[in-house]
Amino acid sequence: MNHYLLKHPIETRDGKPMVAEVHIRRAKGKDLRAIAEAKNDFDGTLMLIDRLCQHPDGGPIFPGFADELDAEDIEALGELVMAILPSGQKTGETA
């Protein structure tokens, strides 16, 4: 399981860190099946970030987690989750 410390933690409304680090679990068949339905590679990457990232204790992160990430963290997490995919696996449809 990979570990990633967010460069820009997600904070609560009062400024306290809510998500500062995540663990990335290995992808399962259901994850691969879900990203096959993605509209494009970017949507597939965000979907994988949402599905594979967990709190360090193994608990789930809130739905739509990837939508709240800073672009710098999306890029870094995207590289990590895409590296987990089997060789040749694609996300979404091609143009």
Characterise the protein shown here.
With 95 residues, this protein is of the alpha+beta class. It has a single domain, classed as rbstp2171 (2-Layer Sandwich), CATH 3.30.2220. The chain contains 3 helices and 3 strands. Strands 1-2-3 form a 3-stranded antiparallel β-sheet. The longest helix is centred in the last third of the chain and has 14 residues, at 71-84. The chain is globular and about 40 Å long. The model has no long low-confidence stretch (mean pLDDT 90).
Which sequence of SSEs, written as H and E, runs from N to C?
EEHHEH
Average pLDDT confidence is 90
Distance between the termini: 33 Å
> Which CATH class is shown?
Alpha Beta
The percent range for helix content is 25-40%
Based on CA inertia axes, which overall geometry fits? globular
Q: Count of DSSP E strands? A: 3
What strand line-up does the widest sheet have?
1-2-3
CATH topology: rbstp2171
Précis, in short:
Helix content is 35%, strand content 21%.
Output the keywords.
single chain; 95 residues; alpha+beta; rbstp2171; 3 helices
Helix and strand arrangement:
Layout: E1 2-11, E2 17-24, H1 29-35, H2 41-52, E3 53-54, H3 71-84
Antiparallel strand pairs: 1-2, 2-3
Helix pairs in contact: 2-3
